Amino acid sequence: MSLRTVTIAALLLMTAGEAAASPTSRDPLKAPKGEYVIDKAHASLVARVSHMGFSHYTMRFDRIAGQFAYDPAAWSSTQAVITVDPASVSTGNPDFDRQIAGSQFFDAAKYPQITFVTSAIEAHDDGLGRIDGQLTFHGVTRPVSLDVAFNGVGPGMLGVGVRLGFSGTAHIKRSDFGVTAVSPLVGDDVDLVFEAEFTRK
Fold first, then answer.
1. Full set of structural domains in the chain with CATH
2. Contact at 8 Å (CB) between 194 and 38?
3. Residue 112 backbone class (left: φ over 0; alpha: ψ -120 to 50; beta: rest)
């Protein structure tokens, strides 16, 4: 077999895999029962906070994990547990990252994990919904609601496995969690934007 033939065959397989990886349904009831874990390579959490009213400073968290057991016959009782490493905060400035993760802000050495545990799920026919849960951050646990879009369920790359995708937003006040450093230079309101893909074990 010539190199050209091998190359064409590889490209066709890649193209077919990409097509097969597209969501096949946005109906949560079409997602099969099973244990799902977050795909860390395709998950992100971004936080935005006002800087003196001039801009919304943006930071990203690079280490996220999570899992849930899903049963379409009892989808509303699904309980997901998501964890974020506060020391993984990334602003593009390593020195500032260490400052944010330090004792003045996140105090990641004392509180090494941010955790969100779902308590209730509300879904609509358009794939939109709300997830209520308990957020533990900086040693404080408070209720938080997420506005969520279910992007769909479908096969993974090359048609292998099952993959679910979600996008969402939330809003918190950092003072609710005891993080009040350099107020009011840094705003109290924090907007959270997340993207997450899960794969079935």
1. 3-200 (2.40.128.110)
2. no
3. alpha
Instruction: Find all residues with CB under 8 Å of 52, minimum gap 6, and list them.
Output: 185, 186
> Per the structure block, which two tokens stand in for 104?
């003045």
C-alpha span between 154 and 151 (Å, rounded): 10
135 forms bridges with which residues in the sheet? 116, 142
Question: ∠ at Cα 8 (2, 13), nearest 5°?
Answer: 125
Q: Mind listing the pLDDT tens digit for each residue in 14-40? A: 544 444 568 999 998 999 999 999 999
Amino acid code (one letter) for 64? I
DSSP string across 105-120: TT-TTTS--EEEEEEE
Say how many C-beta atoms besides its own lie within 10 A of residue 184's C-beta: 10
The tokens 């077999």 sit on which residue?
A: 1
Give me the pLDDT at residue 21, please: 66
The rounded distance, in Å, linking the Cα atoms of 148 and 128 is 6
Q: How many CB atoms lie within 10 A of CB 102?
A: 14
- Other beta carbons less than 10 A from residue 9's beta carbon: 11
pTM of the model: 0.87
Q: Within 10 Å of residue 118's Cβ, how many Cβ atoms?
A: 17
Q: Specify whether the backbone of 135 is left (phi greater than 0), alpha (psi in -120 to 50) or beta.
A: beta
Q: Distance of CA 81 to CAs 22, 32, 178, Å?
A: 26, 19, 22
